[in-house]
What we know:
This protein is mainly alpha-helical and 190 residues long. Helices cover 82% and strands 0% of the residues.
Amino acid sequence: SDITKNLMESLGYTNNEVNWARGIVTGINNTLLTMWKDSFILRRLPAAGHSGNANFVPMASRLGFCVRDIITCIAAFTLVPMFAAYLNERQSENKNALMSNASVSAITVPASMQFATTVLHIACIRYQRTYPNPSLHDITSSIRKDYLGSVAARIGRIIPAFGIGGIGNTKLLETTTQWAHDLDRKKRIA
Length: 190
């Protein structure tokens, strides 16, 4: 995402355009790398009693997983700064608050997006498991049965990755950027 950000900023795109591109490019890259990793693992570790072909993932499931990841990355890279700006407009930043508006946004936006993407996640997995004869009834039944537990699990997985990781990444970037600027100033003075 940082490569996309740096490239687009150097080409003069606005922050909003940069954030949308980061979300889309990161989502696509994440899906492609996951598909490559999974195919590598599944070839070497097929399901018990099956050949490597038993782990076939239909293109419709792959496309659904890609859309799910793009939505999640757009939430993390595009909607988080937009929601933080919205919070800043509605209320002033409290210096004594436990968390900044940006941190609240970094945790709540990707987590809340899981309520929507979990439906797609369950549908794609169920489609894969019942391929080549999936039924809409089976998929919707699976969504009804597994939705709440899956949402909770996906939120539990996404908060450390995008929420806490996003906050940590932002702090690290701010600190190293400030350090580099300070170092540059010291060199100019000397």
